[in-house]
Write a structure and sequence with these properties.
Elements: H1 26-36, H2 48-55, H3 59-71, E1 75-77, E2 82-84, H4 89-113, H5 116-129, H6 135-152, H7 156-172, H8 183-198, H9 202-226
Antiparallel strand pairs: 1-2
Helix pairs in contact: 1-3, 2-3, 4-6, 4-7, 4-8, 4-9, 5-6, 5-8, 8-9
Amino acid sequence: MSAARKPADTPAPDSGRDQPEQHGSEHYWRLRQDILNGRFPKGAPLLETALSTEYGISRTPVREALGLLEHDGLLERAARGYRIRSGTSEDVVEIYEARIALESEAAASAALRRTDLDLARLRHQHELISDPSDEHAARAANFRFHEVLWHAGHNATIVELLTKLNARLRIYDSGPPSSFGDPGVLHEEHERILQALQGHSPDEARAAMRAHLQRSLEQRIRVLVGSGEHVPVH
């Protein structure tokens, strides 16, 4: 019997229609989203039989979905079935570093390949982030800004890799949320990225995104250190 579930949270910003097509199974996507939304406690066993009953499907698609989620780095084998992986602060820092490399290139690609519709979508999310009245909505818009930018680069491989890295980060990084810091600085950083995309300037877009994400990493390290986590020094 599986562990008691936590109530499902509000759907995460990456649960929309722009998911990459690396896996076609709706059962994979459903289980993946439930894991990212915190529906199953960390460390609790995820068993084929229990999940099959819970989702009202046979064990075969459950087995396939669990195997794909293990490959994605979200699950690991346990004595009984699978369990959600627990990441360390080192894992969090490494994922941030990989994201900086990939998303900087996504920004450069977007400067060359973005459409007017891509730019309008980015502008819309940028405006939502600027509204300080709802921090939860601002955080969702901030994530969505980056996700829209991934797609604006029109490189399916980069989108797939960044989607997987972000999913790992969401379950590995259980520390307190980072502050946005100075909203004016965030606004200026995003504006520089948008200006580079609008001007079709890949070098400027790459540099602006790298600086933006490097500041985000430094903020995250400060939060991890403040919470008593060991953070590697490179």
